[in-house]
Amino acid sequence: MTVIFQEQEVSPPGSCVDAPTKLQIRDLRVTFSSRGKNFVAVNGIDLEVRDGEFIAIVGPSGSGKSTFLMALDGLTPSSGGEIAVDGKVVTGPGRDRAVVFQDSCLLPWRNVLDNVSFGLEMAGMPKGERYEIARELIGLAGLTQFETFHPKQLSGGMQQRVNIARALAADPQVLLLDEPFSGLDAQTREIMQGELLKIWDERKKTAIFVTHQIDEAVFLADRVIAFSARPARIAGEWSIPFPRPRHLSIKQSPEHRALEDSIWQVVRQEGALAAA
Ligand SMILES: Nc1ncnc2c1ncn2[C@@H]1O[C@H](COP(=O)(O)OP(=O)(O)OP(=O)(O)O)[C@@H](O)[C@H]1O
Ligand SMILES: [Mg+2]
């Protein structure tokens, strides 16, 4: 199998360049068993993520991106290697990490305020305190006027903003996002990309964002990583040089397009290998 490794000769922008390591992944392996047979979904991934860094992961369907993210969250056990947050080895889910999935899974009988503060309520935080935290995040997500609305009264984009606010409520160190905008139309998706960057910039979280949209990956990330066809390895890595804050218009620039092309080549090749 051909491995293409490409690296732009540029430094990642932003304040995270000299930041300490937040997330350390060493030789990570994930194996599933099915009908008495084992198959490897993730095969020896090494990755070091700096505090406050925004990483986007792309790769063919079925390559192991969600599995990788679930292993980082601790929901899927690894079968080899190590994951550490701030030097502390991950052995299961913890409050230092939070996940946002593609499908909004808000509690339908709770309003926005009670959805965002749900995790804090479960942790036993008094109402006044948890509402204060939730209201701040709802404001950051631009939903102050909607805090008494229930999920079915919100658009898909608004629901995903509530999901992001909810994930941030417990003040996690690392935000894991698995195709959070893939159910949205193209225009809402672009708005959400800008909103996410605003929230990320305000809260200075370390983010790992899985997407199939290469332009989204380049626009959002400090670093884009392409996974190989399953079992997932790192097939390519690109530092994204655009300064922040970023405006959507940079997507039209030749530099942005060139990066997209370069990433596409690797993803397409890996996709062809997956289909072979
Ligand atoms: N719980 C599980 N048990 C068995 N096999 C699984 C499980 N979860 C995922 N897999 C398998 O692991 C491989 C990687 O799946 P994964 O969902 O991580 O891919 P992906 O890169 O996220 O794909 P997509 O882009 O389509 O979301 C697939 O072959 C899938 O069938
Ligand atoms: Mg997936």
Automatic annotation (TrEMBL):
<dbReference type="GO" id="GO:0005524">
    <property type="term" value="F:ATP binding"/>
</dbReference>
<dbReference type="Pfam" id="PF00005">
    <property type="entry name" value="ABC_tran"/>
</dbReference>
<keyword id="KW-0067">ATP-binding</keyword>
<feature type="domain" description="ABC transporter">
    <location>
        <begin position="23"/>
        <end position="254"/>
    </location>
</feature>
<keyword id="KW-0813">Transport</keyword>
<dbReference type="InterPro" id="IPR003593">
    <property type="entry name" value="AAA+_ATPase"/>
</dbReference>
<dbReference type="InterPro" id="IPR050166">
    <property type="entry name" value="ABC_transporter_ATP-bind"/>
</dbReference>
<dbReference type="InterPro" id="IPR003439">
    <property type="entry name" value="ABC_transporter-like_ATP-bd"/>
</dbReference>
<protein>
    <submittedName>
        <fullName>ABC transporter ATP-binding protein</fullName>
    </submittedName>
</protein>
<dbReference type="InterPro" id="IPR027417">
    <property type="entry name" value="P-loop_NTPase"/>
</dbReference>
<comment type="similarity">
    <text>Belongs to the ABC transporter superfamily.</text>
</comment>
<keyword id="KW-0547">Nucleotide-binding</keyword>
<dbReference type="GO" id="GO:0016887">
    <property type="term" value="F:ATP hydrolysis activity"/>
</dbReference>
<dbReference type="InterPro" id="IPR017871">
    <property type="entry name" value="ABC_transporter-like_CS"/>
</dbReference>
